[in-house]
Write a structure and sequence with these properties.
This is Aspartyl/asparaginy/proline hydroxylase domain-containing protein. With 431 residues, the protein is α+β, with helices and mostly antiparallel strands. 38% of the residues lie in helices and 17% in strands. A hairpin with a 2-residue loop joins strand 3 and strand 4.
């Protein structure tokens, strides 16, 4: 890759770049235009489709399928133009950083090699956006800290820098790993000096102790960690009905309906895996709204899920459930889930071989018929080096410590793990 110099920018509060009207003073105004540009260009290249945005989101038409080399090279060229602009216009730094992480984490479609160049650039730009917004100043008020999205800028910087360092160490590039990890350690030390990440947020012994749920329910984060030991009622319920749920999945697979169900419920999501089909979800319900087309093919599973208040009565748009497939050789890049919520996986088909999920500072492997309850607002990723697909029923539910959600029990008493000296700084209704 090479740097492409831009023509002289038109200075002022706004300027035009490749048809995008961008701000030089308010970086959050640049997030959506730049992100949408990357999203549209990415899906156009990897699906050979004509993609545009409308009021419902990204719409791709004339989908021919397959990788389009010309469109991909155009994306790369335009990416470097935006990178070059962001080095000189700090208000672009955050949008470019988030887009590089979201769409350029891998070296290219089909490659499971982490793109170290764009990864390190994303770190540099996240750091620049922190400075631009005053997010490194301990005197910045807590409310303003959150208004400026400083809490998320810091967390993405820590996730990317620490995960890049870990990747380099696993690849035995120890010299570069040490360099990246030293830089991550410096970022982490600076972050820990800020009021938002003080004792009230719980234990932050390392970047992998960071959890978005700590803004809401830090006591539960401290007491339960990434992989929960507490047995939630829904976990026991799913295990009790394992045979029924697995049976419906097997029928779907036997009738070759899974791909159809995945396409029916799919929305435009960031590049989670290096291949478009590494991670597929056939959603049964999202935001308490059941998909009746899909439920017609899995009626018993939907009936079971409708009976669970943690899901069916969860008012959060972050809730949902569906069958998840991870293809052999698949990867799920490090990422945060939305907060506040909790996740559970009922393992349905788990093949032999190297297959694991890293969540925060813990690693776990699925066991058929068993539920893993975990806090997906810790950074998490999946590696699948087996020979057969892995299937789970995933449930994203309202957090059991959320006082704004009844979970079907009027006057319910909060579990003990919800209480402690740590107190969240955001109300659960702020999502």
């Amino acid at each position: 890759m090479r740097w492409v110099l831009l023509p002289a920018l038109v200075w002022g509060e706004t300027f035009l770049l490749d048809g995008l009207e961008l701000s030089t003073t308010e970086d959050q105004k640049n997030d959506q235009p730049i992100y949408k540009w990357f999203e549209r260009a990415f899906f156009s290249a990897v699906q050979s489709a004509d993609c545009t945005h409308d009021e419902t989101g990204l719409q791709c038409r004339n989908i021919r399928g397959g990788f389009d080399e010309e469109r991909w090279q155009n994306l790369i060229s335009q990416m470097w133009r935006l990178v070059d602009a962001a080095t000189r216009v700090p208000a672009l730094a955050h949008a470019v950083a988030m887009s590089l992480y979201s769409w350029m984490w891998w070296e290219g479609p089909g490659s499971d090699r982490v793109n170290l160049i764009t990864g390190r650039l994303a770190c540099d730009f996240f750091a620049a956006s922190l400075a631009f917004n005053g997010c490194t100043d301990p005197a910045l008020g807590l409310q303003e800290f959150y208004v400026r999205n400083c809490h998320m800028r810091w967390r993405y910087l820590m996730m990317i820098s620490s995960e890049l360092g870990r990747h380099l160490a696993l690849e035995r590039d120890l010299l570069q790993a040490a360099q990246v990890l030293r830089q991550a350690q410096g970022y982490f030390a600076a972050m820990r000096q800020l009021p938002a990440f003080g004792p009230h947020a719980g234990v932050l012994a390392s970047p992998h102790h960071i959890s978005l749920n700590a803004d809401y329910f830090p006591a539960s984060v401290v007491q339960q960690g990434p992989i929960w030991s507490a047995r939630l009622p829904i976990a026991e319920f799913l295990e009790e009905h394992f045979a029924t749920i697995k049976g419906e999945l097997l029928v779907l697979l036997g009738e070759d309906k899974f791909s159809f169900m995945s396409q029916v419920t799919r929305n435009a999501e960031p590049q989670f895996g290096p291949r478009d089909d590494d991670w597929l979800t056939a959603y049964l319900v999202r935001g308490a709204q059941f998909n009746e087309v899909v439920c017609a093919s899995a009626p018993k599973t939907c009936q079971l899920l409708r009976s669970r208040p943690e899901l069916a009565q969860c008012g959060s748009g972050l809730s949902g459930s569906g069958f998840l497939r991870m293809r052999p050789g698949g990867r799920l890049k490090p990422h945060f889930g939305g907060a506040p919520r909790l996740s559970a996986h009922l393992a349905l088909l788990v093949p032999d071989g190297e297959l694991f999920m890293s969540v925060g500072y813990q690693t776990v492997r699925w066991e058929e018929g068993k539920v893993i309850t975990f806090d997906d607002t810790f950074v998490h990723s999946v590696t699948h080096n087996g020979r057969e697909p892995r299937y789970v029923l995933n449930v994203w539910m309202c957090h059991p410590c959320d006082p704004t959600e009844g979970h079907g029990a009027p006057g319910r008493i909060m579990p003990e793990y919800c209480h402690g000296p740590e107190q969240g700084v955001l109300p659960p209704t702020v999502r």
